[in-house]
Amino acid sequence: MLWPQTVRDRIKTGNDREIIHSYPYRSACPSTVWADLISGATDELFFAGFTNYFLWTQVPAFADTVRRKTEAGVRVRFLLGDPEGEVTRQREVIEDAILTVSTRIRITLGELAKLGPLDGLEARYSASGDAVNHVSLSVFRIDSEALVTPHLARLVGHDSPDRFAEHAEELWGRGVPVE
């Protein structure tokens, strides 16, 4: 969670104080953190995860909350990967998971369709040139706070551990020597 207003109001801020808490996996972040942030939103909910499907399974009454938030004038946006896109297909090969990336995106699309058209609710696919970056970093902004999830090489997004040194070693191992 980055830049929470309560921290900015009470203690020193800056690049050495931006990260408030770290979890080894996105799923290790308590659903109450998500629910509290989302329910407290007054201006904007921006879900820029490649699939975003977990919101409907981890956040209690998520669809009802989205509906209430839009009725209250909160802007709600979903940025998704294209389920038919090349980056999605490449990621599915990498993950080799039964619950595919395109299926997870379609779950979100189905849930959004159930909400029907709502003023203040928007959804877009990443531009094809941006998808390779989007698939590796999810940003969920709730008003002025954010939850950020990096997705490490060769791991299913929701299982990506906070093991950046191992990630760097994996990338190094596949790297090409500089002549």
List the topology elements.
Layout: H1 5-10, H2 31-40, E1 44-48, H3 54-58, H4 62-71, E2 75-80, H5 86-95, H6 101-115, E3 121-125, H7 131-134, E4 137-142, E5 145-150, H8 164-174
Parallel strand pairs: 1-2, 2-3
Antiparallel strand pairs: 1-4, 4-5
Number of strands: 5
Distance between the termini: 41 Å
The value of Rg in angstroms is: 17 Å
From N to C, what is the helix and strand string?
HHEHHEHHEHEEH
Q: What fraction of the residues are assigned to beta strands by DSSP?
A: 15-25%
Count of helical stretches:
8
List low-pLDDT spans. Answer: none
Overall description:
The protein has 8 helices and 5 strands. The chain has a 5-stranded mixed sheet, with helices on one face. Strand 4 and strand 5 form a beta hairpin. The longest helix has 15 residues. Helix content is 40%, strand content 16%. It has 179 residues and is an alpha/beta fold.
Keywords:
single chain, 179 residues, alpha/beta, five-stranded mixed β-sheet, 5 strands, 40% helix
Give a quick rundown of the structure.
By secondary structure, the protein is of the alpha/beta class. It is built from 8 helices and 5 strands.
